[in-house]
Amino acid sequence: MFTPVKSTKxxxxxxxxxxxxxxxxxxxxxxxxxxxxxLAELLGVSRTSIREALRALQVMGLIESKQxxxxxxxxxxxxxxxxxxxxxxxxxxxxxxxxxELRKMLEIETxxxxxxxxxxxxxxxxxxxxxxxxxxxNEDTKVKLDKEFHYKIADISKNSLIVNILSVISSLMDFxxxxxxKIILSNNENKQILIxxxxxxYNALSKKxxxxxSICMAKHMEFIYKSCIN
Length: 230
Fold this sequence. Notes:
This protein is mainly alpha-helical. It has 11 helices and 2 strands; from the N terminus they run αααββαααααααα. It has a two-stranded antiparallel sheet with strand order 1-2. The longest helix is centred in the middle third of the chain and has 22 residues. The radius of gyration is 22 Å and the shape is elongated.
């Protein structure tokens, strides 16, 4: 599986080989990598180069180290994009509205996709979240239910990339637009508007009407944008 490496930037070639093995399915989610000593022998490089490569792969989010067990290809990638994107956001001096613009674009298309794929069971699950959101009085719980509603729609799309990216965008929003959801929900008039928006989105999804769902989500996202930025 491995081939000896000869290069001045040895650790980069180690990284490339492991990445290629993931891409061609030689290594899969949850697979354990050989111990450092074995990797060094297989690749014909020093253990120092192996350690450098493994550290880089950890930072990239491809592998995880488990104390006393070794290094593994990650099984869960939900939080791997947040750190690099948040750093890029800061270094490029991006504006908070860029996060909201990206979220708007993603969620409008996601809800349309969900409308095509939603099952009767998922309609019921979404209805339960919707009802909890309507009946809840605790602000912190409302924030969690609001997130859950949108994450559920992403799940219904049956697209794992959408789920991961939406999770990252939501984390960026929480980090760089602090307390945005709480600020919006603290206004009684906003509460009723948001409930109506969620009901409209739910109703469109329950009818499996992608066009209507997209229009309702666009209206909702525009309201969020104006509430957070203005």
